[in-house]
Amino acid sequence: MSSTATSPAPQAADPLLSLRGLEKRFSLSGDFLEQLKFKGGKLVREQKYVHAINGVDLDIQRGEALCVVGESGCGKSTVARTVMGLITPSDGEIHYGGERIDDLSSKALMPYRRRMQMIFQNPYASLNPRMTIQQTLEEPIRLHHPDWSPQRVRDQVAEVMASVGIAPDWGARYGHEFSGGQRQRIAIARALAVDPEFIVADEPISALDVSIQAQVLNLLMEAQQERNLTYLFITHDLAVVEHFGTRVAVMYLGRVCEVAPTATLFATPRHPYTQALMSAIPRLEDERPQHLRLQGEVPTPVNLPSGCVFHGRCPHANARCRSEVPTLIATDEGGQVACHGVEEGRI
Amino acid sequence: MTTTTSPTATRWERLRDSYLLYSFKRDLIAQVSLLVFIVLVAAAVLAPWLAPMNPYDLAQIDILASELPPFWIDGSDPAYVMGTDSQGRDLLSTILYGARVSLIIGFGAVAMQAALGVCFGLLAGYLGGRVDAFLMRLADIQLSFSTLMVAIVVGALFKAIFGGATYSAYAVPLLVLIIGLAEWPQYARTVRASVLAEKGKEYVDAARVMGLSSRRIMFRHILPNTLSPIFVISTVQVANAIISEAALSFLGLGMPETQPSLGSLIKSGFDYIQSGSWWITLIPGLVLVILVLVINLLGDWLRDVLNPRLYKG
């Protein structure tokens, strides 16, 4: 396993979405007066931040389903919300179709709003309880196509309802009259209503019953084929990733440690964290490899470790890992990995 | 409950099957309160047709018939069922007209409070940050002035600038303005708290992702989901506004005696209690107490019904 290259991987030209050095800090210290503290007889201003994501580089190609995995609190959802403009990034750039979109005004962002949509985690909270399904589905269409006739809007709603398997007579009902799976279908219909090309799905099936998860997942895959969609799919379920993802990005403590095509990542994980993650998947095999147990806890994102964020728990860490932040380098298998050990051929 | 309604249920069918009506049918206090409230409001609204005489019409007032007692006391005149006040106005008619003025001011002031408070609360809760800090400090400052102080300042200024005659002509809108301005923070705080709870829900994120304007998200998505607490405080605030108006009128800062409200009627009779004419104060006072009581009882019932911890709407 010494096959590494130091030059960036040859990327297919013009990714649909690319994130460059994306960072998001959330202030913990309140307003100016609350930041003032007495320390050693001096008045000092102290600011603390949660570093939710720090320096994420990702490219999403047209037509693929990029899955982002990682444990709770690693910044997966923050990436999704930042991409959709729900959170303003503290640093870094977001490019969509070659255009920078993170610094646009909400008005200039409108054409992109139609092309990018989002599906949320909790179907019980993502539908407005005071709006009927028909109103919920008509609203985005009316907003983005103000010139359409009422009949054309209704036709579009009927078409999108049929495509996600919603009976037309559900339109007059309210969200709370449906089960979780039905609500998630409605939420998907709302996202598809404006014919987007890119969908961010933030753990869309984790709140659902296991028997419903496969249905919703298949629905998303059908929609991808029929409408040529690109997905950014946030999840912590590795079985879903194997089934759904074209490529996988593994995140740890706000950084991407490894990006690789799904089959490659599952067959030959390169980053020590990915290896530990893969070995944690329960399997019905006798000769399964030993479960790699990591020592310690995930460090707090308030005081980030120096160097590689994983060095405190990594069995291969050395002095360089503790001082120097690793960047993503291309591997021979077509993936990218951020690890000094892999780069030096130690792992 | 609502899952049993067919998808094609009309508005009336939804109401018929709703928990609101169900609990109303089982609550005797709420039923009696609503009945009394409707009777009082109907009597006040229909005062020009129901009242035996028009207390605003000086030609109908007979000063010789002043301070006549109600019908069950010796010396009463059958023409004046509830007796007359010190100026010879029929007390029943005056109460009906007075209740009308009190209700107009009560509902008008609450409408103004709600309009101001809901807008400020939505802005503060949804936009947050400096807007929130500014509006909430403004609310704190407003709350530290009592309604009486605002009324004294505004009323005195208005009287000094425009004179007493103009004041009498504009007393009702002026009182609506004063009570509306003094009490808007109640709404703003309640709405802000609800908005903060709703803002974190994903349907608001979905609306933002869609690209809806902040104004549309605030008024079309968040506001409808904060209506329950607004309804509940509205009932309490109507009662409060009527009481405030009565208190102001009693102090001589409200309605002039020529256009009596319940409060100014109580005040006009207060000087004659010692001389035995207790009915001029007591009867309008009773009407005021009953009016405020039934509104508060209805508000209590509504709060119990709409309490999201007891019932999820």
Automatic annotation (TrEMBL), chain A:
GO terms for biological process: peptide transport; transmembrane transport. Residues 38-278 form the ABC transporter domain. One of its GO terms (molecular function) is ATP binding. Keywords: ATP-binding, Nucleotide-binding, Transport. Belongs to the ABC transporter superfamily. This is ATP-binding cassette domain-containing protein. It comes from Halomonas nitroreducens.
UniProtKB/TrEMBL annotation, chain B:
Signal peptide: none annotated. One of its GO terms (cellular component) is plasma membrane. It holds the Pfam family OppC_N. SUPFAM superfamilies: MetI-like. It is found in: Cell membrane. The keyword Nucleotide-binding does not apply. Keywords: Cell membrane, Membrane, Transmembrane, Transmembrane helix, Transport. Residues 99-299 form the ABC transmembrane type-1 domain. InterPro entries: BP-dependent_transpt_permease, MetI-like, MetI-like_sf, OppC_N. It is a multi-pass membrane protein. PANTHER family: ABC TRANSPORTER PERMEASE PROTEIN, OLIGOPEPTIDE TRANSPORT SYSTEM PERMEASE PROTEIN APPC. Belongs to the binding-protein-dependent transport system permease family. This is ABC transporter permease. The lineage of its organism: Bacteria, Pseudomonadati, Pseudomonadota, Gammaproteobacteria, Oceanospirillales.
